Amino acid sequence: MIDLYYWTTPNGHKITLFLEEAGLPYTIFPINIGKGEQFQPHFLDIAPNNRIPAIIDRAPADGGEPVSLFESGAILLYLADKTRKFIPGTLRGRADVLQWLFWQMGGLGPMAGQNHHFNTYAQDKIPYAIDRYVRETGRLYGVLNKRLADREFIAGDYSIADMACYPWIVPHERQSQNLDDFPHLKRWFDAIAARPATLRAYEKAQQINALPSVGDEESRKILFGQNAGTVK
Questions:
Q1: What CATH number does residue 54 fall under?
Q2: 53 with 6: CB under 8 angstroms?
Q3: Is there a single domain that holds both residue 123 and residue 151?
Q4: Mean pLDDT computed over 166-193
Q5: Does the model's pTM come out above 0.85?
Q6: How far apart are CA 138 and CA 130, in angstroms?
Q7: 146 and 188 share a domain?
């Protein structure tokens, strides 16, 4: 039913988490971003921003032609609406989930991503940049920790907000964060890590790309050397 164009990144993991939780049938089409497969014409037809993940829903709820989407947050929301799972049906409950989904998309993901880049991938280690993004990542962990002080999951029940945030917390050590400093977040993190759907999703990731890394100069150029001229 769902074609998933995927690679083993936090944004990719969001979608496998949902699909495993919801029990939707899906087929993974690996897009090896280190080899430049995200620039293949057939993928750009689905994902014009040349980023994973993307999906094609071949059985949309309206019974019409297949629906293609890119952007992980948009995909999570679409799938939640399609299945009526992992998002509340009430106005206030839905708004609560959406604000935290957007918080991840606009804050936790981009800031942790820059943390990864300057801490791990950048050949020139710039202390100001490293400190800037490590501190901001820590601040965002603090926001999430405070939010979880009086509730099991981010918006009460397990939802797409949790699925969006969890994969960005998985590489906490690489982000120079200690989960023991954030006890409510740690409790939440451990609970999600133990869910059977989470275990299945990350097992599939291991089968596709057991050692995710940027291991050579060609991969670095592909991933970090893009500009306006690469958009064709």
A1: 3.40.30.10
A2: yes
A3: yes
A4: 98
A5: yes
A6: 12
A7: yes
Both 78 and 98 in one domain: the answer is no
Q: If we measure between CA atoms, which residue out of 49, 30, 29 comes closest to residue 39?
A: 49
Find out whether 190 and 103 touch, Cβ atoms under 8 Å.
Answer: no
**Tokens representing 29?**
């089409």
Instruction: Name the percent of the chain lying above pLDDT 70.
Output: 95
- 53 preceded by a cis bond (ω within 30 of 0): yes
The token pair at 143 is 């926001």
What's the domain range around 114? Answer: 91-194
66 with 108, same domain: the answer is: no
DSSP string, 135-160: HHHHHHHHHHHHHGGG-SBTBBB--H
Q: How many independent structural domains does the chain possess?
A: 2
Q: By the 8 A CB rule, do 136 and 111 touch?
A: yes
Residues 60 and 109 in one domain: no
Residue 67 CB-density burial (10 A; 0-12 exposed, 13-18 middle, 19+ buried): middle
Answer with the one of 36, 58, 85 that is the final residue of a domain: 85
Q: CA-to-CA distance for 155 and 146, rounded, in angstroms?
A: 13
Confidence of residue 213 (pLDDT cuts 50, 70, 90): low
Cα(52)–Cα(32) distance, integer angstroms: 9
